[in-house]
Amino acid sequence: MGENMGSTTPPSVPGTFILTRPTDAERRRTWSLTHPLWGPALRHEDYVEREVYLTTVPLAKEGGLSQWILTDPSLPPNERPILSSCETLRKRAIRARPDGSVEDGIAHGIGAVFTDAQYRGRGYANRLMRELGLRLRTWQGESKRRNSNPDEVFCSVLYSDIGKTFYAKLGWAPYPSSHVAFPPVSGAESGLAPQDGYRGAKARPIGYHELAELCCADERLLRERVARTARESGRTAVALLPDLDQILWHLMREDYMMKRIFGRTPSVRGAVYGEKGRRVWAVWTRAYYGGLEKREGNTLHLLRVVVEDEEGMEEREVVEGFTEIVRIAQCEATEWCLQECQMWNPTGLLRRVVEGCGLECAFVEREGESIASLMWYGEGTTEGVEWVANEKFGWC
Ligand SMILES: CC(C)(COP(=O)(O)OP(=O)(O)OC[C@H]1O[C@@H](n2cnc3c(N)ncnc32)[C@H](O)[C@@H]1OP(=O)(O)O)[C@@H](O)C(=O)NCCC(=O)NCCS
């Protein structure tokens, strides 16, 4: 591919663009272009290598990840301009109807929407997304049948960093996008012993090997919750599944970054409180955008927070469990140079628990960044759909 390929004059007639899949060389070119924006914590070659690595991890591997470009079909691959680009990740999802019946299907997560600076403001991202919204309706899915079809595409989701209107105009409706932020607290301040594996703490750290069982338990509970939500609201309810692959995608991405930034990977992936059947747990990931030079925005994200027996546990037991888990998260944030811990969209019991836990925290309604947005492909309108467990684990 020629070095000046990006400067090929794009066609001016709107109808001559196509949405298509990039070649390997075009994918690399896209990653090179996005490095200054999304990879300043890494050297250029490490960022590109990370993106290659991220095509091989759970969720993305075996065709789970798809890259897309908007280009000029009159030019051959590798010689055509990349006018705008993005990628999608296939995720498992469940849908419940108001009668409480639950079906399995697919949700596509969209990320990395990007137009090179020289092409901005000409409508290319609009065009890319309009075409993509339509394409994803059937992408990797089977045509809709009456009976449950595990390959039916229910929806596509994205997390807008450019506010609420751009994607809403194209059909992705903004959903609740709030979080609660907890400051880092050192082990010395909190009386916890991170260097000793949190020995003596009331909550226990979660390691890689414990995730599989926790994800299975979570999925079982979430199926019930989605069914209950649909029955009680009389609306269709949907949830992305926080299954092991979904969580591992975050953790392996995190490991890659940690290895480059710290030369080692963390062992504490979350924390759990209580005995089986009455547990509270959270799984988390550490995100570094500016590396250690520019720490603002470096965040410990609680990917998913679960209360195992919402009916059977007393609220003060849940409050204690949650508090002990967050204390470990705060300590980890200090250990790994993070600015805060974030938990997205706590609702119902968890909202009350956050308010009642007594820890210093701030509630934030996001207006410009990570706006959770959803386009519905099933029956009815997007506005008629309840998004259950709209938490950080779904982000990509
Ligand atoms: C956002 C981006 C993809 C838009 O690409 P583009 O090809 O210039 O977009 P279009 O020409 O189709 O549309 C321009 C629209 O984007 C809006 N826009 C661009 N950047 C924006 C920003 N930071 N905040 C809010 N709106 C923005 C413009 O206001 C304009 O709105 P309009 O459609 O109502 O006129 C491009 O600016 C970009 O790559 N930015 C850096 C990466 C990024 O932020 N990606 C989005 C991640 S969710």
UniProtKB/TrEMBL annotation:
- Check the record and name the Gene3D superfamilies matching this protein: 3.40.630.30
Q: Transmembrane ranges?
A: none
Q: Could you tell me which residue ranges the LYC1 C-terminal domain spans?
A: 192-396
SUPFAM superfamilies given in the database record: Acyl-CoA N-acyltransferases (Nat)
Q: Which InterPro entries match?
A: Acyl_CoA_acyltransferase (IPR016181), GNAT_LYC1-like (IPR055100), LAT (IPR053013)
What protein is this chain from?
LYC1 C-terminal domain-containing protein
Q: Which organism is it from?
A: Cercophora newfieldiana
